[in-house]
Amino acid sequence: MELDKLEISLRRRTPWEAIDLGFALARRWFKPLWLLWLSSAAPLGIVLFFVFYDQLGWLMLIIWWFKPLYEPPLMFWLSRAVFGEQLPVKAVLRQWWPVVRPQLLLNLTLRRFNPSRSFTLPVALLEQLKGSARRDRLRVLGRNQHAATWLTVIGIHLETVLEMAFVTVVFMLIPEDLRWVSFSDLILAPGRFGDWLQLAGGLLCMSVIAPFYVAAGFALYLNRRSELEAWDIEISFRRISERVKGESSRRARRSVAAVMLTAFVALAVPLISTPADAGQQVSAEDARPLIEKVLADEAFGRYEQTYYWKYTGQTPLDSDSDNWFILLLEKLFKGMEAALEGGASIGKILIWIVGISLAVFLIYQVAKNGQWFRYFQRSPVRKGRSRPVELFGLDLRPDQLPDDPAEEALKLIERGAFREALSLLYRGALVYLVTREHIEIPDSATEGECEQLVRDNRSVKEADYFRTLTHHWLRLAYGHIVPAEEPVVALCQQWQEVYGHVDC
To answer: Which positions, given as ranges, span the membrane (predicted)?
Structure first.
């Protein structure tokens, strides 16, 4: 390993500073890392598409599960790049299988949910360790190293946030009059288009986060090895050695001059010494009183005697005594303490996962059952308040409706008048909501806003029916897409169950 060719500055870093260093490396080399990830994920995604083209949920799950298949090429490229060797993407792809193959089956099964996957990957890929050697190596490297686990947790949250942002942006780009579904339904009950949208957003977000995740884990690995093996000291010694070799010739000349000068002084000193120098010498017996007198002075401090307790170990117990039970309990408690310390980090992660899952479940239930809260809301319309008589050009006066709108709509369908039939069903539903349920619908409201009001104030069954009715009405009214006869007939049959007769 040529440490003097490192592209990064080695110094003592905390694990969080090492993660920040990995993010900097990912930003610097994002393009080749991103291309390597796509080169591994895209072919697998295309093959899986032809197998699960009608089951996009399984397709997304399998692509996510095979993440350990896409990450080794990124780690391999980074391990060369940090030492000044930036390989072309084609060169890495030519040796793709030898890079991915080591311990691939274990990475896709037993180690798939290892939260420190980015930190442990270099041990198998770069050091080629397996079995007990790998476990011993990870035990040394992973001591007091929990940042890799939090890196995985943060990466999962970032992927989720980016995917939601992608879906939100695409939804906002759709004109309001052409939105056939609400945003909550697009997330919770997406349908075919929503599934494709979430699949595209998930792949895009995984490809963006992967270079940062792998680079941060590799930086943690380098930082830990530098800390254990003192790479920074070794590099300093190598630089000093190179500097010494560069100055060797000059020092040799200086050494010759120093030897000559020393010889001259050695010959000259005896000649110039005087007898007076011998008079200044003091014998050992005369020097002792002088030394004691000098040491007795206060300037040399004072003598102080201190006492302290020192643990000398446990007194060995008599083998014939009954203290074997105490020894057994001590060993048992020590074993439990070690087990608890080892599982503390895993327990924290599980608590976070359970908490996040519970929060997501509660949000899902609230979004799905918004009608739970309608009884706690103030009635949107007071008695005697004026009602709208027209919305989107549709007459909402009850006396302008037939006694049985559903039966009349079936007659219109038999004559092929689908537009008039859907208009009659849609008007009847709006009249029912305004007159019977007293739901306030502003004159400026759109079809999407009416659908949202029904979802917030009515039952799930009624909201689903109104959403389907609105969908067919918008496609026919604005898109001029004539629906098939069967779904319109089904709407007529369900209309009587949901709304019944509309009274004035």
So the answer is: 34-66, 147-174, 196-222, 255-273, 349-367
